[in-house]
Amino acid sequence: MTRSQRLVLIIAILSTFVSFLDGTIVNVALPAIMRELGGGLTAQQWIVDAYLITLGSLILVAGSVSDVYGRITVLRVGLAAFGAASLAVGLAPTAEFLIIARGVQGIAGALLVPSSLALITSNFRGPAQAKAIGTWTGMTGIAMIAGPLVGGLFVDFASWRFAFLINVLPIAVTLVLLARLGQKDQREPGVSIDYLGAVLCTLGLGGAVFALIEQSTLGWASPAIYLPLVGGIVAFAGFLVRQRLAKNPVMPLGLFRVRNFWAGNIATALIYGALSLSSFALGVYLQQGALLPATLAGLASIPVTVIMILFSSRVGVLSGRYGPRLFMTIGPITAGIGSLLMLSISVPFVYWWQVLPGILLFGLGLTATVSPLTSAILGSIDPSRSGIASAVNNAVSRVAGLIVIAMLGVIVGGSLDLAGVHRAMIAVAVLLILGGIVSFLGIRNPVHEVDAADQASAMPTGSPERQA
Q: In this protein, which residues make up the domain named Major facilitator superfamily (MFS) profile (predicted)?
């Protein structure tokens, strides 16, 4: 690598690291936030979903923003906004203030991931680019390990507020490195931003999520619930119509004509919805129900991330050899069985027998799923459209988590007590097993050129199939 390429890779890693770190810290910090600021389960849902609403709805349009205004400019704005929002979260005097600040964090986070990836792809070519993206992906995995542990340590030995304020330091370092990089910004001519589509998507998701979270307080018969729900559905329908008619849609609906793309995204919604529900329910219950310190609650799910880091690349190789369908079928079902093992959680609580076996099986299943899932979706799309395909898949995973957390009250029965966490684990298992079934029925393994040649050579000479 040249000096410039090294700086680019460090900047891209740090930019994404803060977003991933924040996303993994929050579940561990939720019980401490509730004790200090109040609000109960509803406030906890909003603290997670305020971030996911803005992130999930704007990450599609962020790529166009980066092309229009320049990747480095957008990265600077995203970093500064994320730092300011993190500061606001750490100093929040009320739960309502914190929720608004989390929404701003989501807007900033939507700018960071596409811009950092675009910075890599514009500075690296060929094998060097693949290696740089692999390094970038591996370092974000470290954020998944560090987040719960860092959050738990701050909650137990200082304050949950410091868990969010810690973002300010890497953001400041990244802004300094951007200044030292000294690259001229690149802007793509002829690219437009679909502002109307972004607004309709945000209103659609926001209205539906508001109704799902607040219905437990106000009831479905309240106009304050059914009007936002209907309005949200209408707005999201308008977003889909806009994507069909827009000259440069942020979510080209034509992509969903590809079998592996639509089937893979349905599987993504089910699997990542399950993952969000599991992380939230376990993170909160282990502290409020099992009375574990925040640090131990953060460490409880670390085996999943360690297994993924150790074996994901190997699974990717096997998936490339045998095709993704088998792994996408067996993986989610295995993870679902791991979730069902956690129904053994009881009083008195013993992590080693009641949680760890299920966590290990869950981690193995998830590891068998993630890499093949990504390759099945992106491998089915022309490489020239892989960027938008990746953005759509990323948005689907975020929105799935958003909807599942919004429905948490309905799923667990209003409280994350022992019965509630059991209901959550059953829901997680159902979503995962459905993800495996969808993959089995919908995903098709790609036909490699070597396989096609072998099939042709096995056909009789002069047959129409062989001639074709």
A: 8-447
User: What pLDDT, on a 0 to 100 scale, did the predictor assign at position 69?
Assistant: 85
Q: Is residue 160 part of a domain?
A: yes
Does some domain include residue 188?
no
Residue 61 lies in a domain: yes
Looking at the structure, tell me whether residues 334 and 221 fall in a common domain.
no
Q: Enter the tokens of residue 215.
A: 């219905």
Which residues neighbour 25 within 8 Å (Cβ) at sequence distance 6 or greater? 147, 148, 150, 151, 163, 164
Domain boundary among 233, 251, 269: 251
pLDDT at site 138: 65
Using CA atoms, how far apart are residues 184 and 122, in angstroms rounded to an integer? 12
Please give the model's pTM, rounded to 2 decimal places: 0.85
| Buried residues in 182-194 as b, exposed as e (16+ CB within 10 A) | eeeeeeeeeeebb
Quick check: 57 pLDDT over 90? no
User: Using one digit for the tens of pLDDT, what is the confidence trace for 299-341?
Assistant: 998 898 888 888 887 888 888 889 999 999 999 999 999 999 9
What is the pLDDT, as a whole number, of residue 115? 80
In a shared domain, residues 167 and 242: no
Query: Is pLDDT above 50 for 216?
Result: yes
Beta carbons of 421 and 285 less than 8 angstroms apart: yes
Instruction: Report the share of the chain in percent with pLDDT over 90.
Output: 51
Q: What is the dihedral of CA 362, 365, 368, 369, to 10 degrees?
A: -90
| Total domains in the fold of the chain | 3
Task: Verify that 133 and 16 share a domain, yes or no.
Answer: yes
| Cα 3 to Cα 8, 72, 122, distances in angstroms | 9, 17, 15
Each residue's pLDDT tens digit, 370-423: 888 988 887 888 866 766 787 788 889 889 999 999 999 889 887 889 999 999
> Going by C-beta distance under 8 Å and a sequence separation of 6 or more, which residues neighbour residue 45?
213, 405, 406, 408, 409
Claim to verify: residue 220 and residue 199 sit in the same structural domain: yes
User: What's the CATH code of the domain at 124?
Assistant: 1.20.1250.20
- For residue 181, what are the contacts with CB-CB under 8 A and spacing of at least 6? 4, 7, 8, 11, 72
pLDDT digits (tens, 9 = 90+) for 101-148: 999 999 999 888 778 877 887 787 767 776 777 677 667 767 777 788
Residue 240, C-beta contacts closer than 8 angstroms, at least 6 positions apart: 253
**In a shared domain, residues 246 and 265:** no
